[in-house]
Design goal:
alpha/beta, Rossmann fold, 2 domains, six-stranded mixed sheet, four-stranded antiparallel sheet, 22 helices, 10 strands, elongated, binds adenosine-5'-diphosphate, ATP binding, transmembrane, ABC_transporter-like_ATP-bd
């Protein structure tokens, strides 16, 4: 991406603020003019005093002059303060507004993307967040350095040059001829730094990632007594970072020195030339200070060049991946238009195959019939493709090939919000949002009343436990135990009340009592709904109206529990292994006693 492309992409974000920007630019121009007041006043003062001195006038006669220049400088300072305030304030207003708009756009955009986008490796949680955050940060910094830093300085520089040229062509020429050298040195400085800066960026990320990992895995580190090992690892990262930091400083000091040197050469040349012109009677003595101050106005912005150059480079690096997040048109979930108030939930899969965006082939030629208002269990070893199948049934992904019908319609034809309002899901681990228990249950139905929420909690065997907490429904939901969080997910489901329900190992991580209670809740919810359940719990499988057995992405058997058991195939093997793991014989023995 070139800098022009970046500006082109930024245009729609900058456009709403064009009046503000215009205003800031007018302020900039006025500021550039006032910056030339000092040299002019100084020249006038020196020349007038020199004249007075020649005429032998005393202090009394000079008082008028002093009053005049004090007045002018005073007024100029007041005006200048107002201008600087205006520039900064409006500049900041532009920057903050654009930064907000960029972030809003990015968030709005990613919410429309499908799961494939989020599960791709370049968009892992942390990476995506930093792509967006950094992108917004550096793009707004670019806007800032352009409109707030760069333009005023350069306007100042150009006006000062024009004043120099109009005072004396040769002096202007000397000032101008220093500039290319200065540009060249700045360019070299930025070029030299760009490599180091990239390394530095990587090392900073390594360092903070390393620290986060360390904090997250502290228990494992301690249990294996790996503290010295981890410390050495961090130390090495830190050493590399320090090396790069020192190198950056070294480069900067060298080039900054070189630039000061060049600037001083410019000053000396201007003094010599102006002194010559004064002695040659082509100029008054005041011109010496005049030209030096003007030259300072010319060179000040150039001193900032390498910083601005760096910022542009950073903006280029980060904006590419930021705009890439905005541009992922192919990831936008395509909604069909087919709407129906209440779905029945009869699925029909004919020869369905599916590959994840990263190339993992997860389903092969699946044929399946899921009747409405019945419970269908998916059984198979882990990695068999059961969760993937649920991902397809809930249309988080579309099949590569084959036909997936829901109530006789291709699933892609459905209006997405309409479809998802008809689906409910409970997983092994459910997401609990930061917030209270009440807010978390309410996620199932935003407009639910307090009574409805409590009713749902009761059905999920959660109400009594919540009432025992000091802050009851206002308690922090993330502090609840795994089993309680599971009940929140089930309460949400009761509130949402969808006709189709997917359960993905809903009791896998629970203790026996919780499992039993949650099974009771789920049995209550299953009534008159289409349910697809993945489970390793025999009791839940046996209860199902029909069972599909999956192996390596394929359906290998299907039927009722009894039929499959008698078939003496994969299902029987899994069933018997589960039964053995329960140690049923001994259990029965002790129950008989
Ligand atoms: P199960 O639910 O039967 O344990 P899954 O459906 O989770 O199995 O996984 C089936 C296959 O798909 C596995 O090989 C797994 O690695 C792969 N897989 C699951 N989720 C993803 C994903 N988001 N991206 C890529 N591959 C995936």
């Amino acid at each position: 991406m070139s800098i022009w492309e970046v500006f082109k992409r930024l245009r729609p974000f900058v456009r709403p603020y064009r009046k503000l920007i215009l205003f800031a630019l007018v302020l900039t121009l006025v500021g550039a003019l006032t910056a030339q007041v000092n040299p002019i006043v100084l020249r006038y003062t020196v020349d007038t005093i020199e004249e007075m001195q020649k005429n032998g006038w005393g202090v009394a006669r000079g008082a008028g002059l002093l009053a005049l220049i004090s007045g002018i400088l005073f007024l100029k300072e007041i005006l200048n303060s107002l201008i600087v305030f205006g520039q900064r304030f409006y500049g900041e207003k532009i920057r903050i507004s654009i930064s907000g708009d960029l972030a809003d756009t990015a968030v709005g955009r990613i919410l429309t993307y499908d799961l494939g986008f989020f599960s791709s490796q370049t968009n892992e949680k942390g990476k995506l967040q930093s792509r967006i955050d950094r992108g917004v940060e550096y793009l707004t910094r670019l806007v800032q350095s352009f409109f707030i830093d760069l333009l005023p300085l350069f306007a100042n520089s150009v006006v000062a040059l024009v004043v120099m040229f109009s005072a004396n062509f040769y002096v202007g020429l000397v000032a101008l001829s220093i500039l290319p050298l200065y540009f060249w040195v700045s360019y070299k400085q930025a070029e030299k730094l760009s490599g180091v800066r990239r390394t530095l960026k990587g090392q900073r990320e390594d360092k903070s990632n390393g620290l986060i990992n360390l904090i997250e895995s502290i228990q494992v580190i301690k249990s294996f007594v790996r503290e010295p090992y981890e410390a050495t690892k961090q130390f090495r990262v830190q050493q590399l970072l320090m090396g790069s930091l020192l190198k950056t400083r070294q480069t900067n000091f060298f080039f900054d020195g070189l630039k000061s040197f060049l600037e001083q050469i410019g000053v000396v040349l201007i003094i010599i030339l102006t002194a010559y012109l004064v002695l040659d009677q082509q100029m008054s003595i005041g011109a010496i200070m005049f030209h030096i101050l003007l030259f300072n106005n010319v060179s000040a912005p150039i001193r900032q060049l390498h910083r601005i150059y760096d910022e542009m480079n950073d903006a280029l690096t980060y904006s590419e991946s930021f705009f890439d997040v905005l541009d992922r048109k192919e990831a936008v979930e395509h909604s069909g238009s087919y709407q129906v108030a209440e779905l029945a939930g009869a699925y029909e899969l004919n020869d369905v195959s599916f590959t994840y965006p990263n190339g993992n082939k997860a389903l092969f030629n699946v044929f399946m019939t899921i009747p409405k208002n019945q419970t269908t269990a998916l059984v198979g070893l882990s990695g068999a493709g059961k969760s993937t199948l649920i991902n397809l049934l809930s249309r988080f992904y579309l099949p590569d090939s084959g036909e997936l019908l829901l109530d006789g319609q291709p699933i892609a034809a459905f209006d997405l919000p309409n479809l998802r309002r008809n689906l409910g899901m409970v997983f092994q681990k459910n997401h609990i949002f930061k917030g209270s228990i009440e807010e978390n249950i309410r996620y199932g139905k935003m407009e639910a009343t307090q009574e409805e929420i409590q009713e749902a909690a009761k059905k999920a065997y959660l109400h009594e436990q919540v009432m025992a907490l000091p802050k009851q429904y206002a308690s922090d939901a993330q502090m609840l135990s795994g089993g309680q969080q599971q009940r929140i997910a089930i309460a949400r489901l009761f509130l949402k009340n969808p006709p189709i329900i997917f359960l993905d190992e809903p009791t896998a991580s629970l203790d026996a009592i919780a499992t039993e209670q949650i099974k009771n809740s789920l049995d209550a919810i299953k009534e008159g709904r289409t349910v697809v359940i993945i489970s390793h719990s025999l009791s839940q499988i046996i209860d199902a109206d029909q069972i599909y057995v999956m192996e390596k992405g394929r359906v290998v058997e299907n039927g009722t529990h009894q039929a499959l058991y008698e078939q003496n195939g994969v299902y029987r093997k899994i069933f018997e292994a589960s039964a053995r793991s329960l140690n049923l014989d001994k259990m029965l023995e002790s129950m008989r006693k």
